């Protein structure tokens, strides 16, 4: 792949845009949104077999049009992938799909756990804030007056 910038690794590691995209997040197929789920799945698989797909990073709103094989100057693909290249029915494809599903479910579980801990922490802080005397109460002023003497 030709280099667009001299130090691609440094650019990827240090630029905020790439850091956002490298975080684990939900990615959705953006094609044929008006069609039923099963039809969208079939169209996505067919597009992958053809060597292309359109996806979006949900958290950042970044849309990508992916092309799995190099194109010529006119945008036409030079190669067409074989069925074996993207086969969701083969045993290895099923295994990869199962791994991806497990990773997705683990990410969802971790997100729920994080949100639960965060909510609990915020509730705890709020209850402490309500129990503590306010900075302008008599007790706080008495301490300040005592220190001033």
Give your account of this protein's structure:
It is a single chain. 53% of the residues lie in helices and 10% in strands. It is mainly alpha-helical and 149 residues long. It has a three-stranded antiparallel β-sheet.
What key phrases describe this protein's structure?
single chain, three-stranded antiparallel beta sheet, 149 residues, 3 strands
Anisotropy-based shape: extended
Largest β-sheet summary? 3 strands, antiparallel
Mean pLDDT over all positions: 75
Helix content: 40-55%
- For this entry, what is the oligomeric state of its chains? single chain
| Alpha-carbon Rg, integer | 26 Å
Structure in a nutshell:
By secondary structure, the chain is mainly α. Helices cover 53% and strands 10% of the residues.
Give the secondary structure arrangement, pairings included.
Layout: H1 8-14, H2 16-22, E1 27-29, H3 37-49, E2 52-57, E3 62-67, H4 91-131, H5 138-148
Antiparallel strand pairs: 1-2, 2-3
């Amino acid at each position: 792949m030709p280099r667009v910038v001299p130090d691609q690794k440094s650019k990827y590691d240090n630029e905020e845009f790439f850091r956002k995209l490298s975080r684990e997040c939900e990615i959705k197929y953006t094609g044929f949104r008006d069609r039923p789920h099963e039809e969208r799945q079939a169209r996505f698989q067919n597009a992958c077999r053809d060597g292309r797909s359109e996806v979006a990073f949900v958290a950042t709103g970044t849309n990508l049009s992916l092309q799995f094989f190099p194109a010529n100057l006119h945008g036409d693909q030079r190669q067409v992938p074989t069925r074996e290249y993207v086969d969701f029915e083969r045993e290895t494809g099923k295994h990869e799909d199962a791994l991806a599903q497990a990773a997705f479910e683990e990410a969802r579980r971790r997100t729920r756990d994080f949100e639960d801990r965060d909510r609990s922490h915020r509730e705890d802080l709020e209850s402490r804030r309500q129990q503590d005397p306010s900075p302008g109460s008599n007790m706080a002023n008495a301490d300040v007056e005592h220190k001033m003497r």
